[in-house]
Amino acid sequence: MKCFFSFKDKFKAKRGSRSAPELQDQSKSDSSAIKRTSKSLSSLPSPRTIPEMYKEKEQNLRVFTYEELREATSGFHRLLKIGEGGFGSVYKGKIRPPDGEGDPTVVAIKKLNTKGMQGHKQWLAEVQFLGVVSHPNLVKLLGYCSIDGERGMQRLLVYEFMPNKSLEDHLFNRALSSLPWKTRLEVLHGSAQGLAYLHGELEVQVIYRDFKSSNVLLDEDFKAKLSDFGLAREGPQGDRTHVSTAVVGTYGYAAPEYVETGHLTIQSDIWSFGVVLYEMLTGRRVLERNRPTMEQKLLEWVKQFPTDSSRFSMIIDPRLRNQYSLAAARKVAKLADRCLNKNAKDRPTMSQVVESLVEAIRVSETTSGNRSSESSGSKISHRRSK
């Protein structure tokens, strides 16, 4: 991967522009000052890439043997399988401390499908990104296993265990209790904080590229943590406006400009966030083919119920049983509409999204008639989930 635009190159470009005739008779002292500045700037370290940053932190990850992880999952027993996706199966397991002393730790172990090199590339991307990032709203990678043997390529990842499944599970799986209104807001707020960290709080800008409700995991306290970094990419560097890449991801969540051109930016993540905001409000998936034609595509359906209209409340998830703040719901819908702006440059930043959700939570807590019922609903729903 290429490095970020360097200060040294930037300075050289400026010096080239100063070769005009009217600047060639500068004094000697001015010339010396330029040389000193050039030396100072060229000595500054160039921003590092994710692989370079990973080299400093790779020792923080534990390297497991295949036998350890097979034992941890009782031979990858089907009854311990807790998830399955395009890149592999996830099992619940127990690993022993490195020194062999103390109680075992419950973990989630992802065993990638390794029929092609694409699986390895995504495995490597996840190891490097999660080996570098550190934030309360990002799932923690504990270690990995990488073996090339007679039985082929084995690539596994070991994460902290998230006992309350995913946001998708609680929104759409009728066998689980529905998340109460306040918890939904807090989950989206935590998710936004995780994305804001990726977009602007690291040496490099990270585009998550796969934000969806199934990738928002919930810990024992229902705190949101983003998972699955196999599709993450470093953002555009220097004066570039985007990253050109093959279009990958999940249908319905990808921004239209990315699908049409392959140009990837952090605004692509913001579009995806807007989709999930509407999933949270409505309790509906982005695409449901078993519904009437006019209701199958979520983003088309909600347009029939404008945010400021009296019909707006008709889109709210019926599983909330009216235990929500209508004023806060309108704010969330308006935020979703901003995230889903067709013009990517007019979408809010994730920092602005975080601020808007903080305001929605404040409005929800102060809206009369809702606070006590939401609070009791939260306690009941959490007890059932556990």
From TrEMBL:
Biased composition (Polar residues): 24-46
InterPro entries linked to this entry: Kinase-like_dom_sf (IPR011009), Plant_Ser_Thr_Prot_Kinase (IPR050823), Prot_kinase_dom (IPR000719), Protein_kinase_ATP_BS (IPR017441), Ser/Thr_kinase_AS (IPR008271)
UniProt keyword list: ATP-binding, Kinase, Nucleotide-binding, Serine/threonine-protein kinase, Transferase
A UniProt-annotated Pfam family: Pkinase
Occurrences of domain Protein kinase (ranges): 76-361
Region Disordered: start-end pairs: 11-52, 364-386
Superkingdom of the source species: Eukaryota
Annotated GO MF terms: ATP binding; protein serine/threonine kinase activity
Biased composition (Low complexity): 364-379
Record carries keyword Transferase: yes
Binding site for ATP: 111
Keyword check for Plastid: no
PANTHER family in alphabetical order: OS01G0588500 PROTEIN-RELATED (PTHR45621)
Family membership: Belongs to the protein kinase superfamily.
Protein name: Protein kinase domain-containing protein
Species name: Carpinus fangiana
